Amino acid sequence: MAKGKGGARAARGSSPRGRRATPGAPARTRASARASSPSTPAGETHAQHPADGIPRLFRLGAIPGATPGTWIDRWRERMPGVDLVLTPLSVAAQRPALLDGEVDAALVRLPIDREALHVIVLYEETPVVVFAADSHLAAADELEAADLDGEVRIVPQDDVLPALVLPSTVAPSFAAPVDTGEAIATVAAGVGIVVVPMSLARLHHRRDVAHRPLAGAEPSPVALAWPAERTTPDVEAFVGIVRGRSARSSRG
């Protein structure tokens, strides 16, 4: 047929307006490729699948307590051909995982050494005091440092609030628990307190513990970070999602 799709596109690109393609003439290679390729959705900046049919992966790291569910849902809506793989990371491992290429980007807890990284602060968390449910501390809606005078403060080995100083608390007579979960289990037994960001208190919630905000404590920021030398189109797409840009908006 003289009015094939490839022929029509070739005619527009190389012939005067209104001239028809010559019957039987081969369509140009470039026009044929355009005709056979699926159109790119609005807002999409790159191909969904490589030519070999193997889907790309976008590896997102996440520290404990991070809740990227909404962003992941938006990613799957906008980037259906790029699989997002969520990789749990400890705070101690967040920077090495980025620099070693284990993940493409990560939700990290600050502070972090920013050398060779791009970092965008996303939100800040309130530190809370976790204590046994029957503790006298539960009587207050909010605690101050003075309220913790004489309390045994347990600092786990994976503590994420290294700058927090509570001079009126007492160090425990036992070794630091390996992680926050173990520390909160110790608190549940009626021994001491733990101070953690709100998300970690929720992550390790138990019926036998309670928590209250610690007034005056510096908030704990959570950020998106990625290697400065590996700012790929997929990374830029995820940055747009966390910043709330629509699929049609440009990366300005």
Describe the structure.
With 252 residues, the chain is α/β, with parallel strands linked by helices. It folds into 2 domains: 56-124 and 221-242, Periplasmic binding protein-like II (D-Maltodextrin-Binding Protein, domain 2); 127-218, 3-Layer(aba) Sandwich (D-Maltodextrin-Binding Protein, domain 2). It contains 7 helices and 8 strands, in the order ααβαβαβββαβαββα. The strands form 2 sheets. It has a 5-stranded mixed beta sheet. It has a 3-stranded antiparallel beta sheet with strand order 6-5-7. Mean pLDDT is 84; it is low at 1-48.
Q: How are the elements arranged and paired?
A:
Blueprint: H1 5-14, H2 29-36, E1 56-62, H3 69-78, E2 82-88, H4 94-99, E3 105-109, E4 117-125, E5 127-132, H5 180-188, E6 194-197, H6 198-203, E7 209-213, E8 220-227, H7 233-242
Parallel strand pairs: 1-2, 1-3
Antiparallel strand pairs: 3-8, 4-8, 5-6, 5-7
